[in-house]
């Protein structure tokens, strides 16, 4: 495991083949989002998107107390709420980011408020049994405006999402797994390891095919079947022009593992 880049509060490391680990590194503040975190996460998104060697990204928090406790309320109280947003990518430099590569949240401890909104912005979620998830904004006179109020309602049954949003209550990792918010549940302290296993499974596949497939799947709630069918056809046409499109069937016929080039 080698350090690729760090800003102090956002660390980046290469884990295995084609996997980048991004760590929120403010454990003394429960990894709460300040201006530096927002800038660091935006930079991580831009650089992992631009790096052809990165096929999947894992997002986690330092320490075991919290994945992320959301916005740094000290910053909010002192009138610096706007600094927690970036012009292009929104809250924490992530929630509005247009990404082609899969992001996996590896959650230990609390993922609440804006921290849960970071989880909801990812594509898949691994949780240790210590994890808890919640949107307590209404208890502070706020609204989970960085995607929480609608992304939660898309991921779990509507009535249960509305209850969590309206009460501000949190739920356990086990309950989140039962409801489908969490992909895989593991022992406390093992979320990052389990996320790496999932990332390795993803990276065993053709990276461009993964990205094109996810691009269509992410639009499933936004478009009707005809539009989604058209997007799928256009994506397939792009894939037909890649080397990997020929490599997959050839490797199958030759009874060997494919060698993906990502082009």
Q: What helical percentage do the residues reach?
A: 25-40%
Give the CA-based shape.
Answer: globular
Number of helices: 10
How widely separated are the two ends? Answer: 26 Å
Q: What oligomeric arrangement do these chains adopt?
A: single chain
What's the total count of β strands? 13
- The averaged pLDDT comes out at 93
- Strands of the largest sheet, in order across it? 1-2-3-4-8-10-13
Pattern of helices and strands: EEEHEEHEEEEHEEHHEHEHHHH
Q: Which residue ranges are poorly predicted, with pLDDT under 50 across at least 5 consecutive positions? A: none
Which structural class best describes the helix and strand composition? Answer: alpha/beta
Rg on CA atoms, Å: 19 Å
Strand residue content: 15-25%
Largest sheet: 7 strands, mixed
Task: Please explain how this structure is put together.
The structure is a single chain. Helix 1 links the parallel strand 3 and strand 4. The protein is α/β, with parallel strands linked by helices and 263 residues long. The model has no long low-confidence stretch (mean pLDDT 93). Helices cover 40% and strands 19% of the residues. The protein has helices spanning 35-50, 73-77, 114-121, 148-155, 158-167, 173-179, 191-203, 207-217, 225-240, 243-253; strands spanning 2-6, 10-14, 19-24, 56-61, 66-68, 85-86, 90-91, 103-107, 110-112, 124-128, 132-134, 170-172, 184-186.
């Amino acid at each position: 495991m080698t350090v690729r880049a760090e800003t102090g509060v956002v660390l980046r490391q290469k884990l295995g083949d084609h996997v980048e680990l991004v760590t929120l590194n403010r454990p003394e503040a429960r990894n709460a989002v300040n201006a530096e975190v927002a800038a660091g996460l935006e930079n991580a998104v831009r650089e992992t998107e631009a790096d052809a060697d990165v096929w999947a990204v894992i997002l986690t928090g330092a320490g075991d107390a919290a994945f992320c406790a959301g916005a740094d309320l000290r910053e909010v109280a002192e009138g610096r709420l706007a600094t927690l947003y970036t012009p292009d990518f929104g809250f924490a430099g992530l929630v509005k980011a247009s990404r082609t590569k899969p992001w996996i949240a590896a959650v230990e401890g609390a993922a609440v408020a804006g921290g849960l909104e970071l989880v909801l912005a990812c594509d898949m979620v691994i949780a240790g049994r210590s994890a808890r998830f919640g949107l307590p904004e209404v208890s502070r006179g706020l609204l989970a405006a960085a995607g929480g109020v609608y992304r939660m309602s898309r991921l779990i049954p509507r009535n249960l999402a509305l209850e969590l949003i309206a009460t501000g209550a949190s739920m356990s990792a086990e309950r989140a797994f039962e409801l489908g918010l969490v992909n895989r549940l593991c022992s406390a302290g093992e979320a990052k390891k389990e996320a790496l296993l999932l990332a390795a499974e993803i990276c065993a596949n053709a990276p461009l095919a993964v990205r094109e497939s996810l691009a269509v799947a992410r639009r499933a709630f936004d478009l009707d079947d005809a539009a989604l069918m058209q997007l799928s056809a256009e994506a397939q046409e792009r894939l037909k022009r890649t080397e990997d499109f020929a490599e997959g069937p050839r490797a199958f016929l030759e009874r060997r593992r494919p060698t993906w080039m990502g082009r």
